[in-house]
Design a protein that fits this description.
3 copies of one chain form a homotrimer. By secondary structure, the first copy, chain A, is mainly alpha-helical. Chain A has one domain. Chain A has 7 helices and no strands. Chain A has helices spanning 12-32, 37-59, 71-84, 93-116, 121-143, 156-171, 176-197. In chain A, helix 1 (12-32) crosses helix 2, helix 2 packs antiparallel against helix 3 (71-84) and helix 4 (93-116) runs parallel beside helix 6. The longest helix of chain A has 24 residues, at 93-116. The radius of gyration of chain A is 17 Å and the shape is globular. Chain A starts with 11 loop residues before the first helix and ends in a 9-residue tail after the last helix. In chain A, 56% of the residues are buried. The interface between A and B is medium-sized, with 33 and 30 residues.
Chain lengths: 206, 206, 206
């Protein structure tokens, strides 16, 4: 099942930090909606691990957080922090930029993991997009609000760029140490441009 | 994959009765919405088996109802009963109390099954909550109405209490014959207090 | 895991054509909603492969499109076609009739695949319904509009008829070459009658 492709791994602390950023965005949405602490934990978990969970189910890998002793407690702790701090600490741009880093990093990790499990390039590209975006989409569907998928912002597109660079470079035989940082940077730069200048994709005009 | 933890099993009739109660709550929502019989079957199935299905997918167990000859027919029969009886037979408090029993029982079964499959304690606790609550959440999302997750009622919290007592007692090495009934009773008592006195959790106040 | 039941396979071109029809219905919904190209690809993929994906996860089979080199590119190409053509090319009845063919064909394929994987008859029947309908349901939930599941049209019912004939005939020991076309025709005829004459199921009247 495992092919010869290598798998990028974040240092464990960076990986957990990335999950915590996603989890925080879920917990803060629950706070905005004036929800209870239990709901906040649920949103933190779904947003933090949702994308990677769907990827692992699709490629047939064991779901990454179920047998990990740290990921679920990190989501729980994030919800605790969100509950006991004023939301204005987290408002503004810090969280959006942290989320942009996470989006690009997880799009690369997700597509590289899919390649490493022997998935074909086009589906592996889609796995990268899913890893970066699906947690936020499930969060928005549960909250009953229009998901990032339905907004013209360059969000899903940034994940798609990172995953495409990762797949393209790997298939071309370039070393991971070169491809992975480059791929993550490309998606982060695009998402950053969208945040800084409000760039959006055009909608269908018929 | 299977650890040394034991697995609580309900007597088969009690297990099917629990699934039928959840399935009935799905079928009755379809009836309230004046849906067709086919939709009613779909809702009965999703609500009856949704939580356990998500748990089994996450922990990598075979999905419990797919190879079982009884569970799917029970959901189908429940939908038939709901279709041919007036909804007022089922309105009022009977169904809520039956659902409270099912919620507590399935939170215990779900967390104990996850432990038995070698899942770490914190994710196993979350598997208990998922087993008890996710069927109803999917049902509400499909119906386009705010899910129990977004209401302040002590519902998800009751499942969380049952699962926590189950995990805590098992990790402490207490025998299942003591822990499981105690855990189920704790969650049922909390849910019962919420039903009898309208207790709710506080929302986030910033 | 694999039982003695045979598995119907469409000729590869017909199979990809069926996926493309479902994917096109997803892409066109994104076009109607004036979404971006990236969203259109996401909708094409989810609608094209969603039902079969859920079926494969439930029965424990490898997800059919993840290791296939053609399915994901077909969904991508379909989205490109939808983006660069005026929607009026696709409006009107052509797409509805193509969708009716796909619905009946995939209900048969899904239930036969479940039987071939050793699933019991009643759950296998439900797998057929899921394969035909769930892609469209996820598409509608993501778009935030009432799904086909909540409309009285004979849609889910047509899939249920095809799957039931397929299961019934196979369990009765009839040869697949006879059962599969008959089952697909039955569901297609029912869906066609609904399209041609606006037949709908009655809703629950209490």
């Amino acid at each position: 099942m495992i092919s010869a492709h290598a798998l990028p791994t974040l240092p464990p602390a960076a990986d957990l930090a990335g999950i915590a950023v996603f989890a925080l965005s879920g917990a803060l949405l629950a706070a905005q909606l004036r929800q209870t602490f239990v709901t906040m934990v649920f949103f933190a978990l779904v947003t933090g691990v949702g994308g990677g969970t769907v990827r692992d189910l699709l490629i047939g890998a064991p779901v990454f957080w179920v047998r990990d002793p740290w990921v679920a407690p990190v989501c729980l702790t994030t919800a605790l922090v969100a509950w006991f701090t004023p939301t204005r600490w987290w408002e503004g741009r810090f969280l959006e930029w942290a989320d942009a880093v996470g989006l690009a990093a997880y799009a690369v990790i997700g597509s590289a993991k899919a390649l490493a499990w022997g998935v074909e390039p086009v589906p592996a590209w889609m796995m990268g997009v899913i890893t970066g975006c699906v947690g936020g989409i499930i969060r928005d569907v549960l909250a009953g609000r229009p998901s990032i998928l339905m907004r013209p912002e360059l969000y899903v597109t940034a994940a798609a760029l990172s995953a495409a660079v990762c797949i393209g470079g790997t298939v071309a035989g370039l070393p991971g140490a070169l491809v992975w940082p480059l791929a993550a940077f490309a998606g982060f730069a695009l998402r950053g441009a969208a945040l800084a200048r409000g760039i959006a994709l055009p909608g269908y005009r018929g």
